[in-house]
Amino acid sequence: MTQQQLIADTDPHRLARTISGFNLIGGELTPARSGRTFPVVNPANGREIGQAAHSDAGDVEQAVAAAARAQPAWAAMAARKRGTLVAECARLLAGHVEELGRLVALETGKALRTESRVEASVVADALQFYGGLGSELKGETVPFDPGMLTFTQREPIGVVGVIIPWNAPMMLMALKIAPALVAGNTVVVKSAEEAPLAVLRVCQILNQKLPPGVLNIVSGDGPVCGAPLVAHPQVGKVTFTGSVETGRIVARTAGEKLIPVTLELGGKSPMIVMDDADLPRAVTGAVSGMRFTRQGQSCTAASRILVHEKVHDAFVAQLKARVDAMKMGDPLDEATDIGTIISRAQLDKVLGYIESGRAEAGATAHECAQLPSGDALREGLFVRPVIFTGLGNGSRLAREEIFGPVTCVIRFSSYEEAIAMANDSDYGLAATIWTRDLKTALDATRRLHAGFVQVNQNIVVQPGLSYGGVKQSGLGREASLEAMLDHFTHKKTVLLNMS
Ligand code: ADP
User: Fold this and answer.
1) Are 460 and 294 in contact (CB under 8 A)?
2) Beta strand 406-412 with 386-389: parallel, antiparallel or unpaired?
3) How far apart are the CA of 299 and the centre of ligand 1, in A?
4) Residue 272's beta-bridge partner residues?
5) Pick from 2, 186, 158, 3: which is nearest to 82 by CA?
């Protein structure tokens, strides 16, 4: 079946059923070869909304074969033409923002107004951005020897394996597939078990414009479906976002194969609030930076908020008041600010951290906002946001990634102490500093060990800005022009002897 003019369907329940049970390989929606599927559950009420294909190595084989078949013709197309097609995909997606927002809200529990609809529009934005970059795939001439014309050229790697998580599945997928495709690679995506439907729908929409086999997607378990994708001999590059543990497994296999890998892993991002900071602004930054509207399920969540002792109590009071005013509820309800945790396993993990924090001497857990009432959401995976005070930077809660609506506000008395605490972490993804003093701000941007540092704001990854971590937070950069050039092409050097 070739994909023809898909009509947007804003009833997410119907749409979930329509695309249930499929992979998308070679332009066709196809079930797993075994015929097996697994349930996709709405975390707001525990009910099944559809099924996803339970793919294994055989399905991965088919998808990689389709991508490998499509790759030479795709690479032979003028780079600008590939970019134009990707930009046309962005325009197509713009007509599906509402349905994609609703579908991802249904399967992830992220509130439609504050998160899911926003994510859907960023997907189109990312494709639009990369769609304009085809002509940037330039080489250089090298003044090596007057008798030799020496130049470099950028060449695609071939078939790229893309492994994505569930927290912002469409956006993270878009930031990987768009540069890979514009650079002339073909792609096989492996979706996350918890959120396979919205990304499948995105790929189905994109397949209306892209030649068959250029973009393929399979769903399944990490070890059963993701691992064979990484290990496949025809996959020449893997780009992965997920946990540090799985990142290591992926990197190990890639290391055996000697192929390049990009890893976007966890974070424990510090937010330093100096005593001269604009406090209300910093509080707003903490609310958005901690991604309370995404239940804290973000790699860059400001989960360590370091506050100068002079403003600590005022900051905590204001932050608590702001989070208290947020409404938890049905993710599809426009009035809802905060939806649910993704899964029972994740919920148990988050609750375990909260319990362990409460047990620490001197700790106070400030629980904020109210759980939704009513029978419809009784089985929903809701966790009230918690702001901890009285914990040190050595606490488990300040060192490990919780991936839930839990942050620690930690007191400091000097700038040097704050910088030392901020950098005393296994992670180094993002960091922010809040101050009115330019010298302090600039000094901190130099000294903070992180890949993405902001002053007096905390916005999410944006198309055009290199994004990625140091230390355990990962390898490589995404979202920018350099990300496309450095991570999705090989540079070939050519010497032409003219004597
Ligand atoms: P999380 O804890 O956020 O679910 P994971 O790292 O487990 O993070 O999962 C991120 C992605 O990696 C998912 O798509 C998952 O299926 C996939 N994955 C899990 N294990 C493996 C593996 N051994 N090889 C390849 N991919 C895997």
Assistant:
1) no
2) parallel
3) 15
4) 306, 433
5) 186
Taking the C-alpha atoms of residue 444 and residue 434, their distance in angstroms, rounded to an integer, is 10
The residues lining ligand 1, judged by C-beta closer than 6 Å to any ligand atom, are 163-165, 190, 192-193, 222-223, 226-227, 230, 242-243, 246, 249-250
- Looking at domain 12-265+473-494, its CATH architecture is 3-Layer(aba) Sandwich (3.40)
Q: What is the DSSP letter of 43?
A: T
Fill in the DSSP letter of residue 461: P
On whether the CB atoms of residues 100 and 120 are closer than 8 A, the answer is: yes
Round to whole Å and give the CA distance between 198 and 112: 13
Average pLDDT, the chain: 97
The token pair that represents 114 in the structure block: 């504050």
203 is catalytic: no
**DSSP letter for each residue of 108-147:** H---IIIIIHHHHHHHHHHHHHHHTTGGG----B--SBTT
Given a contact cutoff of 8 angstroms between Cβ atoms, the answer to whether 349 and 404 are in contact is yes
- CATH superfamily label, 270-463: Aldehyde Dehydrogenase; Chain A, domain 2 (3.40.309.10)
How far does residue 251's CA lie from ligand 1's centre (Å)?
A: 12
**Among residues 42, 61, 458, which one has the least CA distance to residue 284?**
458
Strand duo 47-53 + 474-475: pairing: unpaired
Over the stretch 437-492, which tens digit does the pLDDT of each residue have? 999 999 999 999 999 999 999 999 999 999 999 999 999 999 999 999 999 999 99
Residue 1 pLDDT: 40
Confidence of residue 5 (pLDDT cuts 50, 70, 90): confident
Q: Which atom of ligand 1 is nearest to the CA of 167?
A: 3
The DSSP element (H or E) to which 306 belongs, if any, is: strand 304-308
